[in-house]
Amino acid sequence: MNSKRRTPEEMVKQLRTSEEVENYLKIHIGEKERTIYFYQYLNRYVGEKKIPISQVIASSKINRNYVYNITNGSKKRPGRDKIIALCFGAAMTYEEINKGLEIGGYCRLNPEDARDVWISVCANRKQYDILSLNLLLERYGLQPLDI
After folding, report:
1. By 3-state DSSP, what share of the chain in percent is helix, strand and coil, each rounded to 5?
2. Distance CA 91, CA 112 (A)
């Protein structure tokens, strides 16, 4: 008996219901990789690291109500600078910040952009103070984070 295996594309073409999609994703993608929005990534990260959201808010210097709109999913696509600030507020590593940017729909920190290089250096040094970062960026004539 010759059993023909369907390709993932063929399987996706057949999906119709939410239940079918959920089952497909569980089997073929896995729970960790199913992050669709930045708020899901941030919530999972702070949950795993046991970081209070109030600490992320205070450290990111972003308006509390705006952060709550992000974390509850009301604001699904925050700006690139807001994502960077929230990642700094959660003390994420360089790679974790880049993952957050990608999930948020933005490019990774660019090694050919002076502003992104300074942001990367601060993350690598674990210097997560947003005010200090913005002062550093201004000192070099670069645009501070728009938070």
Report:
1. 60, 0, 40
2. 23
On whether the CB atoms of residues 134 and 85 are closer than 8 A, the answer is: no
Q: Is 111 left (phi over 0), alpha (psi -120 to 50) or beta?
A: alpha
| The pair of three-digit structure tokens given for residue 58, joined into one six-digit string | 């205070």
Over range 76-89, report the average pLDDT: 96
Q: Is the pLDDT of residue 42 over 90?
A: yes
Instruction: Check pLDDT > 70 for residue 4.
Output: no
DSSP run (H or E) holding 89: helix 80-89
Average pLDDT over all residues of the chain? 90
Tokens for 20? 């079918």
Residue 40: closest CA among 75, 66, 64, 12: 75
Half-sphere exposure (Cβ direction) of 54: Cα atoms closer than 13 Å: 0
Is the Cβ–Cβ distance between 39 and 72 less than 8 Å? Answer: yes
Residue at token pair 């807001």: 82
Closest listed residue to residue 61, CA positions, set 44, 81, 42: 81
Separation of alpha carbons 46 and 136, rounded Å: 27
